[in-house]
Specification:
The complex is a heterodimer of chains A (192) and B (250). With 192 residues, chain A is α/β, with parallel strands linked by helices. Chain A has six helices and 13 strands. In chain A, a hairpin with a 1-residue loop joins strand 11 and strand 12. The longest helix of chain A has 12 residues. In chain B, 38% of the residues lie in helices and 28% in strands. Chain B has ten helices and twelve strands. The chains are: A alpha/beta (192), B alpha/beta (250). At the A-B interface, helix 1, strand 8, strand 9 and helix 6 of A face helix 2 of B.
């Protein structure tokens, strides 16, 4: 079973729908036991970092997520909450990835919304994906490039479009909304 | 590089896609979910569904349709038409829509913009503006373009963005359904006023019109309905054309 973490900042319906289309059963849950016992865990997110972290802390989900040993995929705000600190709501995050989340400078349209191409792909979740695939982004804050970056994107400046450390994977873009390429990336994760 | 988006819009009435001219004379244009799937295959970057059904049972039928769309479509989509309160927005987003589009309800109650933005994020709030050029000014119209307001379009756009609108769907009523090209001047007027993505809408009639709007304005996306529904222009044909014209599309 795949667990999709339920919290106050979710696009869990979209993720669940995408998994259904790929033929994978999933459950949207905040039940710690179910999350711990899941084969794979997806940590989605559309929302605001400060209030999301507060909620996760209150429920003890932050410590739980950090302790997971199975493959975990953070999406969008999920990726950002796995970092050290976010400028959004000036909040400390989970610190799985030792890097910071910053607000895009206002020199171009913010949010970064739409299809943009990935470069420097370097993870098994991109297996079988062509060199510069277009995927769907929507975000106003970005993760800095770090040693954990496994795909980059450029908007105003280069930022981490995907990250990986041990069993933790994360994407700033929405694979569940990125057409066939997004489905392939999800499938790669689900088959890990 | 961030790509310019091509967005087919499906006007929905009683569960069917319809299309009129200058907001009138509705004609049937097919099953929305089937059309949506075809557009996705052809390379649409996003979809907009505007429900113009006016019945009491509306929310229930809309939620069903949204669930159906969300289960089949793997790109982002926006739902609008009759989102009158936070609960309407919540119902539609929880059913799987990525964004809601609000129009008359936001003019009547601008606080609705901030309420939805606070709950779901600015990116989930698309402010749709129907506007007409009258006596030297672009003015905001409501109720499907039938009622004029005193608001100047650029002022309303600015106010809405300050309240939390994450995107503006800008329809020129002078151009809608005429197939004479997008309202370039209007797009430039609003782009200069706000720093969120603008979707140009109204007037698309041929390939050149899309090139024009992307070359001569700073809009992030162009939206059309009729020309796609009736097959006058295919989305893949349009995108291939734009690529050869050096417009950055997916």
């Amino acid at each position: 079973m795949i667990a999709i973490i339920k919290y106050n900042a979710g696009n869990s319906t979209s993720v669940k729908n995408a998994l259904n289309r790929l033929g994978f059963q999933s459950v949207v849950t905040d039940d710690k036991k179910k999350i711990l016992n899941a084969e794979k865990v997806i940590f989605p997110g559309v929302g605001e970092a400060g209030s999301a972290m507060k909620y996760l802390r209150e429920k003890g989900l932050d410590e739980l997520i950090k302790s997971l040993k199975q493959p975990v995929l953070g999406i969008c705000l999920g990726q950002q909450l796995m970092c050290l600190h976010s400028e959004e709501g000036n909040t400390d995050c989970m610190g799985i990835f030792n890097c910071k989340v910053r607000l895009f400078p206002n020199t171009e349209i913010v949010p970064h919304m739409g299809w943009n191409s990935l470069t420097k792909l370097n993870s098994e979740i991109f297996n079988g994906i062509s060199e510069n695939p277009d995927v769907y982004f929507v975000h106003s804050y970005y993760c800095e490039i770090s040693e954990f970056t496994v795909a980059q994107c450029n908007y105003i400046l280069p930022f981490a479009a995907a990250m990986q450390k041990d069993n933790f994977f994360a994407t700033q873009f929405h694979p569940e909304k990125s057409g066939l390429i997004g489905e392939k990336i999800l499938l790669n994760f689900l088959k890990l | 590089m961030l790509k310019k988006r091509i967005i087919p819009c499906l006007d929905i009435k009683d569960g069917r896609t319809v299309k009129g001219t200058n907001f009138l004379n509705l004609r049937d244009a097919g099953n929305p979910v089937e059309l949506a799937q075809k557009y996705v295959c052809d390379g649409a970057d996003e979809l907009v569904f505007l429900d113009i059904t006016a019945t009491i049972e509306k929310r229930k039928t809309l939620v069903k349709l949204v669930e159906n769309i969300a289960s089949k479509i793997n790109i982002p989509f926006t739902v609008g038409g009759g989102i009158n309160c936070l609960e309407d927005a919540e119902a539609v987003i929880k059913s799987g829509a990525d964004k809601v589009s609000i129009n008359s309800s936001a003019v009547r109650n601008p606080k609705l913009i901030s309420e939805i933005a606070k709950r779901f994020g600015n990116q989930a709030v698309v402010l749709a503006i129907d506007t007409k050029f009258e006596n030297g000014e672009w003015l905001v119209f409501v109720n499907g373009g039938s009622v004029s307001t005193e608001k100047r379009t650029k002022d309303w756009a600015k106010q809405a963005v300050d309240l939390g609108a994450g995107e503006i769907l800008l329809t020129s009523m002078n151009h809608d359904g005429t197939r004479t090209g997008f309202a370039i001047e209007l797009c430039n007027l609003v782009c200069a006023e706000v720093n969120v993505p603008i979707i140009a809408s109204g007037g698309a009639g041929n390939l050149l019109h899309f090139k024009d709007v992307f070359e001569n304005t700073n809009v992030s996306a162009a939206l059309a309905a009729g020309i796609f529904h009736y097959g006058d222009i295919g989305i893949s044909e349009l995108k291939n054309y734009l690529k050869t014209e050096k417009i950055n599309v997916r």
